[in-house]
Amino acid sequence: MASSERKLGVGICGLGRAGSIHLDNVAKSFDLQLLYVVEFRTEHAQTLLTKYHQDQCEIVSPSDLDKMLSDERVDFVMVCTPTNLHEEQVLKSLNAGKGVFCEKPIAATEEATLNCYKAAESNGKPLFCSFNRRYDPSLRKLYNERSELGQIQMVKMCARDSPFPPIEYLKISGGVFHDCLVHDIDAACWILGEFPKRVYAAAHAHNDAIKEMGDVDTVAAILKFESGALAIIDTSRDSRYGYDQRCEVFGTNGMFLNQNQRPSNMIKEELNGQSMGRMYNSFADRYELSYIQALQHFCRAVKGEESIEISKESTINVSKIATALEESCKKGCEIEVPY
């Protein structure tokens, strides 16, 4: 167990989109000390470290991962690399006695994911798959007060991405179901407290580059649960008016609505009508607080102050649901999820 009286030592693998966000949050934390970044783009890494005044941090190449893992000052590792590298880095970190905070997915296959969780259990170290929307303050409030709704009958999730992701990222993203919909699947199952029995999805590729990859960019998904509840997920890769994120939960006693967030909530009432500011433009802005609070939860787990909230079962089942939706889209029929 790490001492709660000193800063936790941190190593970050990968400084892409997510890794850069985590570097920012670690650098701003009074409770954490960034000791290493593992990144093959040395100049890119140095630019970020200079920006956040992390002069004490050492840059190591992926081939020198063991140098970081052998340092006893490192309490946990944040894995933010492409999916094909996750399994090796997660396993090595756990077997070196480090906690692991991993961007989804933990690994590319169910078997590999299970092996990672077994390593966490055998080494007595926390392994956290960061479905960070659970830590969004407004969605967390909805979750905490959901019992007021009585029997929940419907959950609607809208998740339209902005700006359009780089093509090079899309090629390694794992596809829209495992890259985007997994967040909404996890949130819907978390709110309902159960996993769906059957799922259905319809989708289309409006973007030619995405079509050439064999992927889709616009999805409508339906999840059917044992309780009778339904979840509907509406997803797009290309929302040009902003990062559209909404959640509606309907029950026998009423409805909760988690609306889009904006940098300013000021509303103008003028001669030509009502207007308000544009919603946040990207996931990094909209979920800024959820990234911070997910990290804070993990740090408490590293210190032994609380247990990891996102279970092995949730992580694996969400991936199974995404795969079933992908199969449904290809076959054009409802699919039973094989738990």
TrEMBL record:
All copies of domain GFO/IDH/MocA-like oxidoreductase, residue ranges: 146-256
UniProt GO MF annotations: nucleotide binding; oxidoreductase activity
One GO BP annotation of this record: NADPH regeneration
InterPro entries: Gfo/Idh/MocA-like_OxRdtase_N, GFO_IDH_MocA-like_dom, NAD(P)-bd_dom_sf
Keywords on record: Oxidoreductase
Start and end residues of each Gfo/Idh/MocA-like oxidoreductase N-terminal domain: 9-128
Pfam families cross-referenced by the UniProt entry: GFO_IDH_MocA, GFO_IDH_MocA_C3
One GO CC term on file: cytoplasm
Similarity comment text for this entry: Belongs to the Gfo/Idh/MocA family.
The name this protein goes by in its record: Uncharacterized protein
Naturally occurring in which organism (per UniProt): Bugula neritina
Lineage, uppermost ranks: Eukaryota, Metazoa, Spiralia, Lophotrochozoa, Bryozoa
